[in-house]
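Please predict the structure of the following assembly.
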Amino acid sequence: AQKITQTQPGMFVQEKEAVTLDCTYDTSDPSYGLFWYKQPSSGEMIFLIYQGSYDQQNATEGRYSLNFQKARKSANLVISASQLGDSAMYFCAMREGRGSSASKIIFGSGTRLSIRP
Amino acid sequence: DTAVSQTPKYLVTQMGNDKSIKCEQNLGHDTMYWYKQDSKKFLKIMFSYNNKELIINETVPNRFSPKSPDKAHLNLHINSLELGDSAVYFCASSQGWDENLRETQYFGPGTRLLVL
């Protein structure tokens, strides 16, 4: 069974619009962490945002926010006021366990976001 | 300041050769990883080391041998390279949960390996 599901292989969004990238996860562990990464065409993996399962509030980092709905097991990334430089692959990932090095981080298949000028 | 660095950035080699990729992190993290990203962009963990000890080995062929001389370095040696080894290999490091129960994991720039 897929642990991390990103149902949107690709998205096109007009510049300056907000965009939501979907991510659902599957775990029975009460302790887990959720990550979002951006991979531009240059290839590097850029850490964007983290949400812990015990966090009471949604994580925010600048224009990025994570819409964390625990009961629905979803962790959607919201990018406000999109920019051309936001065009990239976006990966959702999860680590089960208490931030333990013994547990692995599992990645979704990614969403390719393209921003139209 | 480079947090996680990898060398080389590009590696083109013949089938059957042996090659190494080096990784260093200056973040003071205890845990380092190797990931493989295939041509379809799927990213999968290969190995994890914590304080120089192997923690995770994801059924990777034993032609792949990681080595961690200290907690700031994690190298990957690949013997008898095969065509299917062509991929981007990422090194990463993390510290697990901090006092605020937050975690960060940072990736190196990747090594693009092409086996001919």
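The CA atoms of residues 52 and 68 of chain B lie 5 Å apart. The longest strand of chain B covers residues 43-50.
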